[in-house]
Design brief:
Mean pLDDT: 83
Oligomer: single chain
Shape: elongated
Largest sheet: 2 strands, antiparallel
Number of domains: 2
Strand order of the largest sheet: 1-2
Radius of gyration: 31 Å
Strand content: 5-15%
Distance between the termini: 83 Å
Length: about 120
């Protein structure tokens, strides 16, 4: 059995869209807000998720004994090793007083001939 076409609702929405009064403007504003929420909501949530992941990744510490990653604990939850001296994965220690000659990679050029 077919459902009847809801002409009453279609005509009511049409009148609200055409009507220059307060009800028409309110309806269009609410519809516009819902559309903006549906379009920009996932973008904002994706950006917030990316920032949260970067924050979490900077605080992640890997146990040197067993390799278990953990966040903010002084002892490894798997093996009990001390994690107080281990730096987080994102903060690599760079020597300040090292001479520049130690930081430069020497490249040697060799000719390769086909035999």
């Amino acid at each position: 059995m077919q459902r009847p076409i809801p002409w009453l609702w279609i005509s009511l929405i049409g009148v609200l869209l055409i009507a220059p009064g307060l009800a028409g403007r309110l309806f269009v504003d609410v519809l516009e807000g819902i559309t903006l929420l549906l379009v920009f909501g996932p973008l904002v949530l994706g950006g917030a998720g990316f920032l949260a992941w970067q924050w979490f990744k900077r605080r992640l510490v890997t146990c040197p004994a067993c390799g278990t990653p953990s966040v903010g604990s002084a002892l490894c939850p798997a093996c009990g090793a001390d994690l107080s001296q281990v730096r987080p994965a994102g903060s690599a220690a760079k020597p300040v007083d090292a001479p520049a000659s130690d930081a430069v990679v020497d490249v040697q050029v060799q000719d390769v001939t086909d035999q």
